[in-house]
Amino acid sequence: MMRGGWHDRPLTHPGRGSHPEGGPHGAHPTAPCRARHVPAGPRPMTAALQSPLGAPVTFERVSKRYGDALAVDAVDIDVAPGEFFTLLGASGSGKTTTLMMLAGFQMPSSGEIRVGGRAITHVAPAARNVGMVFQSYALFPHMSVAENIGFPLRMRRAGGAARDAAVARVLSIVGLEGLGNRYPRQLSGGQQQRVALARAIVFEPPVLLMDEPLGALDKHLRAHLQVEIKRIQARLGLTVLYVTHDQEEALTMSDRICIMRDGRILQTDSPEALYDRPADTYVAGFFGESNIVTARADGDGHALFGPARVPLPAGVRPGAAVDCAIRPERISLAPAGAPASGGALRVPATVTAATFVGDYRRYELALADGTPLSVREALRETRAGFTPGAAVTASWAPGAMRFFVDGRAVA
Fold it and tell me: Could you give one GO CC term from the UniProt record (predicted)?
């Protein structure tokens, strides 16, 4: 195969250029030039189905500077073997830079990174033996599906029979049996992404890195592949570090989620814990949606949420400003004057907007003092919803609320 010509350039999308092999198989365009070492050929893929592949990953006080700009600020991360771990954040949060340092495409300014207990901070990308899947797919256009998938094994000098067997097995795993002779241009976007995933796991890496791999797909296909990727990860026992800005994607796929902002980790926890027990007001607003009303604690352990007196946690001092948060779906609506349910907080309100969104209705309310409130009501039965101008009573359980002082959660 000729080197240096257009034949060796991967099929990619503008603005997301990447080498198809990334850390496991070759240097990324942004990676420093280093001596290359290609690890030995893999064990048979059948062994992967008998014992988990995943290795633990550790970041210890890892930082990355670009001149005076601190992109990643002394992060500590511990990922368990076989865990699906997601880095979630807005643009500029540092999530992709963190992943690129693990892949070896960026060098940390300080700190240490370990995979399987082995320090890899200064190891060349090709010698780290981690798999990488990019949003751009990065497939070789002149190679068939089977040749694309088998390329990492060729670089590892695996024998032809072993390579063919491994390729056939991963084609089955990703649901592409019978398509090995096709070319990337003959595949849909979802099929191309499956090929990229198959190529990343064919050599059985202990860690798989995924950088917004579903971002270019439509919503329906993205939802389907979320389930498929999670199924494959669980079947093989892979450790996965996944980068996304899509909250629903993170909720669907992750064992744990790490929320980043301005290069720092704000909170790492299970999806349920992040949603129900956000550590600060940023997480409460970023991960899902919250109604947050600022109130003043009185001397009796309560605060006013609109006209309702809300009991506060014992640790809130009298006179403190308190942010009271409630998720829109935790609020129930009833016509004004409907009988009260025991123990619920109740506030009168007026519907200002109503939107039908298929499986739920979204309402915007105004409380008597003008405080706005959003409500998300699941459609469990076919009945007419409330219309703008309707007088309603909004109610919720006191335990569904979360309270923050100086931006931090109080229990």
Answer: ATP-binding cassette (ABC) transporter complex
The answer to whether residues 240 and 338 belong to one domain is: no
With beta carbons less than 8 A apart as the criterion, state whether 159 and 165 touch.
Answer: no
**Rounded Cα distance, 298 and 312, in Å:** 10
Task: Categorize the per-residue pLDDT at 137 as very low, low, confident or very high, splitting at 50, 70 and 90.
Answer: confident
N-terminal to C-terminal alpha carbon distance within the chain: 63
Q: Are 111 and 74 in contact (CB under 8 A)?
A: yes
**Cα torsion 245, 246, 252, 257: sign:** positive
Q: Which domain holds residue 348?
A: 289-410
- H helices present in 202-322, as ranges: 219-236, 247-253, 271-276, 281-286
Phi, psi of 410 (to 5 degrees): -120, 140
Which residues, other chains included, contact 15 with Cβ-Cβ below 8 Å and sequence gap of 6+? Answer: none
Number of domains in the chain: 2
Collect all residues with Cβ–Cβ distance below 8 Å to 112 and sequence separation of at least 6: 58, 59, 60, 61, 62, 119, 121
CA distance 53 to 235: 10
User: Are 312 and 374 contained in the same domain?
Assistant: yes
| Identity of residue 116 | G
In contact, 119 and 113? CB cutoff 8 Å: yes
Residue 74 identity: A
Using only C-alpha atoms, the chain has a radius of gyration, in whole angstroms, of: 25
250 shares its domain with 297: no
266 and 354 part of one domain: no
Contact indicator for 326, 374 with CB cutoff of 8 Å: no
Residue 278 has pLDDT above 70, yes or no: yes
Please give the Cα distance from 147 to 6 (Å, whole number). 17
Q: Are residues 172 and 262 in the same domain?
A: yes
CA gap 197, 40 in Å, rounded: 20
Contacts 24+ apart (CB under 8 A), 188-191: 189/137, 189/216, 189/217, 189/221, 190/217, 190/221, 190/224, 190/225
Query: Is residue 376, in this structure, part of any structural domain at all?
Result: yes
Q: Rounded to whole angstroms, how far apart are CA atoms 341 and 331?
A: 13
> By three-state DSSP, how is residue 114 classified?
strand
Round to whole Å and give the CA distance between 178 and 361. 44
Confidence of residue 14 (pLDDT cuts 50, 70, 90): very low
User: In the prediction, which pLDDT does 389 show?
Assistant: 97
Contacts of 380 by beta carbon, 8 Å cutoff, 6+ apart:
none
**Residue at a domain's end among 245, 276, 307:** 276
